[in-house]
Amino acid sequence: MTVAQKGARRRSSVAGARGWTLLFLAPVTIGIAVVYYAALQGIALGFTDWNVISDPEVIGLQNYQTLVNDPRFWTAIRNTMGIVLITVPVKLAIGLVFALALNRVIRFGNFFRLALFFPFTCSVVAVSFIWKYFYDADGALNRIREAFGWGKIAWMDPSIALWSVSAMIVWSGVGYIALLFLSGLQSIPRQYYEAAIIDGAGAFARFRHITLPLLTPTTFFLVVISLIAAFQTFGEVYILVGPLDSTLTLMSYIYERAFAGFEMGYASAISAVLIGLILIVTLVQLWMQRRWVSYDN
């Protein structure tokens, strides 16, 4: 085979590999394009007045001006931020504790991992109905309290309803957090710990100077996805509590205005605000990761 033939064969092979690559990337690219198109379409609808029946009417910034003076919108913002600030750090802290414990469990390790992950595999509807039974006036939690001689608690009282919903969100999501932390823990080379023990480092020093720094990539990923999930809280609140202002979130307010009030333009404006909040928080996280995330191993 001549040099020219070898070159032509190599070019043909490279072109074939590129073709297969583009073929496999096509479904993902189409899916991402559809998501971006829907997001842009929603942002555009935020500048219209549309009741689904008639054609959308462009009204400029009127929906956003109404938002500024809408007290229920600010209630939804406050409740959503409350859920974010409660659930994200608590899920990460409990998930890390479970992961550290599972990392030391040798017998029945798979059983404990399955038991911990099981709530995450359940649908939001199933989890919400289970906790609805727990929070009922004669439900499991109040029966336990009565067994200890304590009085009943109205778990869905407006003063504590947000905390009750947050507890359910933590319960259902902590298994996923724990398993990803466990995966991160098991990827840390054992030689680091052995060297630290030889140098006389105690358990806390090893956790502080080896485990935590090498878990920062996993922690960063979990912080980002947990924040996005918390901002999008809807099913848990709507099924467990219903349309009450004490637990009104941005997602439930969007649903209420879009499908109960048929105010698609206004709901789209709220959606645009939600997208903006998630984008800002994610960009801040990406910017801050340079200061605390270590990818060295």
Describe the protein's architecture and organization.
This protein is an all-alpha fold and 297 residues long. The protein has helices at 3-45, 62-68, 71-104, 109-121, 124-135, 140-147, 161-186, 190-198, 203-214, 216-231, 235-240, 250-260, 264-292, and strands at 48-49, 57-58. A two-stranded antiparallel sheet has the order 1-2. Helix 1 (3-45) packs across helix 13 (264-292), helix 3 runs antiparallel to helix 10 and helix 10 (216-231) packs antiparallel against helix 13. The longest helix is centred in the N-terminal third of the chain and has 43 residues, at 3-45. It comes from Herbiconiux sp. A18JL235. Pfam families: BPD_transp_1. The chain crosses the membrane at residues 20-39, 81-102, 114-134, 160-182, 212-231, 267-288.
The Rg value, from CA coordinates, equals 25 Å
Tell me the strand order in the biggest sheet.
1-2
The total of beta strands comes to 2
**What proportion of the residues form beta strands (DSSP E)?**
under 5%
Encode the helix/strand succession as letters.
Answer: HEEHHHHHHHHHHHH
Mean pLDDT: 88
Structural class: mainly alpha
- Backbone shape: flat
Largest sheet: 2 strands, antiparallel
Taking the alpha carbons of the first and last residues, their distance comes to: 47 Å
Helix proportion of residues, in percent? Answer: over 70%
Poorly predicted residue ranges:
none
Number of helices, counting only DSSP H or I runs of 4 residues or more? 13
GO biological process, one term: transmembrane transport
Pfam families: BPD_transp_1
Membrane topology: Multi-pass membrane protein
Family: Belongs to the binding-protein-dependent transport system permease family.
